[in-house]
């Protein structure tokens, strides 16, 4: 295999690693959720990364003689995406699941995101519908439903979950907006500054919840396991996961990036098996095979990548046009 073809595989491997980390993170969140308030947990998760990210960003820029410069509208966009991620996606998911169930969350909160992304991209004339997409997306969505179906808490729609299901669909819509918005930025600016700004905006948006719900006695009651859960989620799932996700996003575009989200139910089942001792049913095995087959169809499609105008590379002195 040539070096060029090998480099072309790296973003795909990047997304696989991201969803392995995020699948394991669902098990970590479940463990940590036994002790932590969800908003406090996520507020600390984002805030704990800020010093590390900004120190790394400082030395990244210094070693390359770059200036901390970003266009005003792009600054507003990345801060808006940070708040959207922290509040509109993470917090909304937690709230929506109070009125629905985890299976509906996997299908409606995540599974519809590639569908919404491709619809937006088609309307913006950024992507063309091909036979691979027409096969791959429905196959992936059906496979996710197969994975999460079965049992009392399997995927189902009804009046008792209607409120939560609508909120979950809103979460998928926000996820599509996040991908498309971030896709505009990752081709213009280095990842360290984008991740640092995004996490800072997200942490500030969650700070009021931390201040209102946590005090010294609250933190003293958290066990060692609870703190390990927070560290895993902060370092691996957040810092490494988001950095690798957005690097791969810059290479593949928002549609193919969103399609990899269908791996999450597969890696979540694997994480539950390894860390929580949960069993994997035959339907989950079959659904996992279906997801992998769908990924093959979508990622092999050469015409589904978003067409973007060439962007001049940043110079040594500025990051704006």
From TrEMBL:
Compartments where found: Endomembrane system
Protein topology in the membrane: Multi-pass membrane protein
One Pfam family matching this protein: EamA
Transmembrane segment boundaries: 12-31, 43-63, 75-97, 103-122, 129-150, 162-181, 193-214, 226-247, 259-276, 282-298
Top-level lineage group: Bacteria
Domain spans labelled EamA: 13-148, 163-298
InterPro entries found in the cross-reference section: AA-Vitamin_Transporters, EamA_dom, EmrE-like
Keyword terms of this UniProt record: Membrane, Transmembrane, Transmembrane helix
Family the UniProt entry places it in: Belongs to the EamA transporter family.
PANTHER family, per database record: EAMA DOMAIN-CONTAINING PROTEIN, INNER MEMBRANE TRANSPORTER
Name the record gives this protein: EamA domain-containing protein
Classification lineage: Bacteria, Bacillati, Bacillota, Bacilli, Bacillales
